[in-house]
């Protein structure tokens, strides 16, 4: 593999994971919690970034060295476990994708005035076209990179316009007034929960970047992916904080839209349309690709027709949204649910790291194992606490 193409694939995998994470739920969660926690939300972001890096480094390395997809690794750990994991991931991915399609429809509604349903249908067609082209992998990499850069650039502009109190944000990041467990679980779930952490790792496998000789590049790629998502999260947080610190109230029906509109007027509102659409459509592509990658190896027919199953996955998500819809509370709930899937999937990967029949003579670094175990225990405890105590309040 040529150096340029390898670097391009690594960047593409990083952007696929990052843009899978940066969807309508990501935008909604970040602005919603900023309006509640203000500068103290910086602590939640810092905590989630540390957890994200630990989870993703472990998962990507183990998938690369085993040269197997996550569901095949899980089946090798315990027969049937891979099918269970695949079902969890696909259900979570489908739920998330309905929200992604909803966000894409809302983005086109803001930009062109079409109905959110019509916008969702048009966006679904665009996402399907990415997989219809002959070189779908290359098209997906290029598409997510361009959309990712556009999102970040527009959010940076709005952040500067909002003039946030950066000094206060830095202080509260390390000395918060309050610590919100729901916010931490939701952010981690929305960044590396469910299917998201596997998006880039499975893309690298498909591109042939695997084995012990590729571990250095895989580790860098995993950290780069979290870095891209985290940069977007920080910029969006600061933009929202700038608006909130001026005493302006965010619209609870659409918190991220009001951040852009209050910070930069009607131009800002149109920019939000671009950001929301770019965030949503790349998440549609990432969710469909990764969710289907979890079932394609379970059966020869599924493997043969996986591209058409991806297209069907996008079509189903679009049809369900056209019939149902997706409120803010549901986007936060799905993030929390994905946070619950993380300790299961990461726990399976850590067990696999110590099974020679899966990883051969590879020795997983002890510090990574300890880091991973701490994350599994923390996320399991926080997710259970959140589902029982905090999530019901969203619907009260």
Outline: globular
- Architecture, CATH level 2? Up-down Bundle
The CATH class assignment is Mainly Alpha
Q: Which topology does CATH recognise?
A: Amino acid/polyamine transporter I
- Cα(first) to Cα(last) distance is 55 Å
Q: Which structural class do you get from the secondary structure elements?
A: mainly alpha
Number of domains: 1
Subcellular location: Membrane
InterPro entries: NRAMP_fam (IPR001046)
Keywords: Membrane, Transmembrane, Transmembrane helix
Transmembrane segments: 36-55, 76-98, 110-131, 143-161, 181-201, 222-249, 269-295, 307-324, 330-354, 366-388
Question: How do you describe this structure in short?
Answer:
The chain has 396 residues and is mostly helical.
Question: How do the helices and strands line up, and which of them pair or pack?
Answer:
Elements: H1 3-21, H2 24-37, H3 41-66, H4 70-77, H5 81-112, H6 116-132, H7 136-162, H8 166-174, H9 181-192, H10 196-206, H11 215-244, H12 255-293, H13 300-304, H14 306-323, H15 328-352, H16 356-359, H17 366-394
């Amino acid at each position: 593999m040529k150096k340029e193409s390898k670097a391009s694939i690594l960047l593409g995998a990083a952007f696929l994971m990052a843009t899978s994470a940066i969807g309508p739920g990501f935008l909604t969660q970040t602005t919603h919690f900023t309006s509640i926690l203000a500068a103290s939300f910086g602590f939640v972001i810092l905590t989630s970034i540390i957890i994200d890096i630990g989870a993703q480094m472990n998962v990507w390395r183990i998938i690369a060295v085993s040269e197997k997809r996550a569901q095949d690794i899980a089946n090798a750990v315990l027969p049937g476990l891979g099918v269970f994991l695949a079902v969890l991931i696909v259900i979570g991915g489908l739920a998330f994708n309905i929200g992604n399609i909803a966000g894409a429809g809302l983005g086109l509604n803001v930009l062109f005035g079409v109905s959110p349903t019509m916008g969702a249908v048009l966006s679904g067609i665009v996402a399907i076209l990415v997989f219809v082209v002959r070189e779908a992998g290359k098209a997906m990499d290029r598409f997510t990179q361009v959309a990712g850069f556009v999102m970040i650039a527009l959010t940076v502009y709005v952040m500067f316009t909002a003039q946030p109190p950066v000094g206060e944000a830095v202080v509260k990041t390390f000395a918060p007034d309050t610590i919100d467990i729901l916010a931490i679980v939701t952010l981690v779930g929305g960044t590396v929960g469910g299917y998201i952490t596997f998006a880039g790792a499975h893309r690298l496998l498909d591109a042939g970047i695997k084995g012990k000789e590729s571990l250095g590049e895989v580790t860098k790629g995993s950290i780069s992916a979290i870095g891209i998502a985290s940069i977007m999260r920080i910029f969006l947080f600061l933009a929202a904080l700038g608006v909130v610190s001026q005493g302006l109230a965010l619209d609870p029906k659409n918190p991220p839209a009001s951040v852009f509109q209050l910070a930069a007027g009607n131009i800002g509102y149109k920019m939000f349309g671009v950001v929301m659409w770019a965030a949503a459509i790349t998440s549609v592509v990432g969710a469909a690709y990764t969710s289907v990658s979890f079932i394609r190896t379970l059966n020869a027919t599924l493997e043969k027709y996986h591209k058409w199953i991806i297209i069907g996955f996008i079509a189903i998500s679009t049809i369900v949204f056209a019939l149902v819809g997706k409120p803010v509370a549901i986007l936060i709930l799905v993030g929390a649910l994905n946070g619950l899937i993380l300790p299961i999937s990461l726990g399976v990967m850590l067990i696999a790291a110590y099974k020679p029949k899966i990883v051969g003579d590879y020795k997983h670094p002890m510090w990574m194992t300890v880091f991973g175990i701490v994350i599994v225990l923390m996320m399991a405890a926080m997710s259970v606490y959140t589902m029982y105590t905090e999530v019901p309040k969203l619907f009260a």
